[in-house]
Design brief:
single chain; alpha+beta; OB fold (Dihydrolipoamide Acetyltransferase, E2P); Dihydrolipoamide Transferase; Chloramphenicol Acetyltransferase; seven-stranded mixed sheet; four-stranded antiparallel sheet; globular; acyltransferase; tricarboxylic acid cycle; transferase
């Protein structure tokens, strides 16, 4: 018998909340199969089977708070086949009647498989893992339209998320169908906040309470970058295996500005100011569980291709729940792109203890006065929120102007000016 225990969850994390179990008592599992998901203050951690076996007992239920080293389940050796007591009695009474015994065994097996299917099936009849059902419920997804890649064709969480990205949804009700009567309690639903959401809420409020937060705005003409991307995109993708996006330009522009205005790359520690001589940029990523900020390390020495590749990998792992604690620690500055959701202008909140965060927004064509003429240009509003305790207004405005200049003239990044 092997105990499945809570693994080490990372620096400063001592406990977690048990999420959805992917298996039930009596299920057979193979080594590295995902058993359960644990939610911590920072990331979701998947607990996997360390060897083949059968789930003998589940010791922690969904929603329980568990500490590092606590037992979650017991894993025993075997194939997971269950012995039916009534079958044993019948076999004893009909000893010697091999044909009847075989039929009884087949009947029991079919019954067992049917019960397992019923247990894993959602309201639409599709067989799905618990995490996939939760995703479907939160996003109105019809799991019967999703192809399952899990055991016995079950729909996994990854299958559900992939279907959402592809635009799958629940089928529209028939126009002639009468509306169902409203059930008691349907108007409201009380759901406990996840540990990640609780931590996000607490840290954002702490940032507002502790920092003297102020936001300055500017706008950038994105014509030059858009033209450059269009010109070199095919060659860039062919050579580096990744598309040239906007984010790598913003990262490089921010690094150049941080070198000029080091206070924005610093933090306050008591009565001291810690100036960072490295440039680890956090990139905010929205997931189905909340906002996370994975970090791209040493952006001052990385190429545009390396930054794009790093952002793509971190973003995918964030959406799949595969980020590790260390992936989200130690950023010196953060970039948040609300433009992907259509935001035209907003004021980002600092990611403490950092002193600055840049907000990107939607690119929108607007009439601009250029050399005495009105021309239509693709413009983006930029917002820099900063801690006024350490960054003066002049420094904040200068920082944002440096970013604007680099974006409007990307050759400045190549020439390091």
């Amino acid at each position: 018998m092997t105990e499945i225990k809570v693994p080490t969850l990372g620096e400063s994390v001592s406990e977690a909340t048990v999420g959805a179990w992917q298996v039930s008592k009596g299920d057979s599992v193979k080594k590295d199969d995902v058993l359960v998901e644990l939610e911590t203050d920072k990331v979701a951690v998947e607990v996997r089977a360390e060897e083949d076996g059968v789930i003998e007992e589940i010791l922690a239920e969904e929603g329980d708070t568990v500490e590092i080293g606590a037992a979650l389940a017991r894993l025993g050796a075997g194939s997971g086949a269950k012995t039916d007591k009534s079958g044993d009695k019948s076999a004893a009474k009909s000893e010697g009647k091999d044909q009847d015994k075989d039929k009884s065994g087949e009947k029991d097996k079919e019954k067992s498989e049917g019960e397992a299917d019923d247990k894993s099936a959602d309201a639409s009849g599709a067989k799905a893992m618990p995490a996939a059902k939760r995703v479907a419920a939160e996003n109105d997804l019809d799991l019967s339209r999703v192809e399952g890649t899990g055991k016995d064709g079950r729909v996994t969480k990854g299958d559900a998320l992939k279907a959402l990205e592809g635009g799958a949804s629940a089928p529209a009700p028939a126009a002639s169908a009468p509306s169902a009567p409203r059930e008691t309690g349907e108007r409201e639903e009380r759901v406990k906040m996840t540990r990640l959401r609780q931590t996000i809420a607490r840290r954002l409020k702490e940032a507002q309470n502790s920092a003297a937060m102020l936001t300055t705005y500017n706008e950038a003409d994105m014509s030059a970058i858009m033209a450059l991307r269009k010109q070199v995109q095919d060659d860039f993708t062919a050579k580096h295996g990744v598309k040239l996006g906007f984010m790598s330009f913003f990262v490089k522009a921010c690094v150049a500005a941080l070198k000029d205005i080091p206070a924005v790359n610093a933090e306050i520690d008591g009565t001291d100011i810690i100036y960072k001589n490295y440039y680890d940029i956090g990139v905010a990523v929205g997931t189905d569980k909340g906002l996370v900020v994975p970090v791209v390390r040493d952006c001052d020495v990385k190429s545009l291709a390396e930054i794009e590749s790093g952002i793509g990998d971190l973003g995918k792992r964030a959406r799949d729940g595969k980020l590790a604690i260390e992936d989200m620690q130690g950023a010196t500055f953060t970039i948040s792109n609300g433009g992907v959701y259509g935001s035209l202008m907003s004021s980002p909140i600092l990611n403490a203890p950092q002193s600055g965060i840049l907000g990107m927004h939607k690119i929108q064509e607007r009439p601009m006065a250029i050399n005495g003429e009105v021309k239509i240009r693709p413009m983006m509003y930029l917002a820099l929120s900063y801690d006024h305790r350490i960054v003066d207004g002049k420094e904040a405005v200068t920082f944002l102007v440096r970013v604007k200049e680099s974006l409007e003239n990307p050759q400045r990044l190549l020439l390091d000016i």
